[in-house]
Design a protein that fits this description.
The chain is α+β, with helices and mostly antiparallel strands. The chain has helices spanning about 30-40, 45-50, 110-115, 125-160, 165-200, 210-270, 285-305; strands spanning about 1-10, 10-15, 20-25, 60, 70-80, 85-95, 100-105.
Length: about 300
Amino acid sequence: MINYYSIKDEKIVEYVEGLDLFWIDMQSPTEKEIEEIVNKYSLPRDYIYDVRDPQEISRIEGINDEGKSKLIMLLYPLKITDGYYATRPISVILTDGVIITATALESNILEVLKENKFKSFVKTQSREDFVLEIAWRISQFFILAVRDLEEKITLLEKEMRVSTKNELLYKMINIQKSLISFQMATRENGPIIDSMFASDRLFSAEYREDLIRDLQVENKQAQVMVEKSSTMLEHLSDLYSNVISNNLNDVMKILTSITIVLTVPTIVGGLWGMNTPLPFSNEEYAFFYLLGLSALISFIIIYALKKRDFL
């Protein structure tokens, strides 16, 4: 799917005849759509095709070359299921006065830009501002995703206190995989962001230092949050094994105590069920006597077990 956008009254609007084309957004494009854009703007094929590779790394190409298309490829977080994220590449291409973004899967990461929710000092019609805004939003999405995972970790802490199910372990594995992906992605995005600002040819706005500081701080914050959450989850995994073992011990202790208590009526009933002369065997209320005796012994055993914290 390809969407075209222009600038009108300093706002992003859908492209119509009579307006200059400013931004081409490609999400889950078909082969035909990719070929159309590649041929129209004479782009290297890998600029767009590489976003289909989930293992693609961040990179920057042609940033200092005069007259060439410029590629900035970054990794962004993509929510797969509740509590599980992956990272995927996004291509940001600058060519012939047009910005082209491409992702292999549909994502809402750029929706805020289509809604014109920019930072206060960003000039929408500036290509460099727009590219920097995309990079800043990607760092923001990492932070939001990590916060979501931190909430999931908090819920796991509460659930594991009473649960012995493997389901919690599977949730923990998904969170761990997500954080590892985030750790690698934010680490790879960092040098690309630094390279973007090292180029005076492309990024030379008068408030360039403000953009540098905000973007680098945002990416650094994402890295720190990912590292913190990874450490928390690592310790939580160790505790989880101990909690499960302790919960299983409690369950076995209770089941063993119940078995001991229920054994008493069985023994009493077995003894007085023999075909030999026994006390109370000729009594009219012998059954109730034996029932009371079983109950008395059972209560004594329950009291003894509770006193020793076995029940």
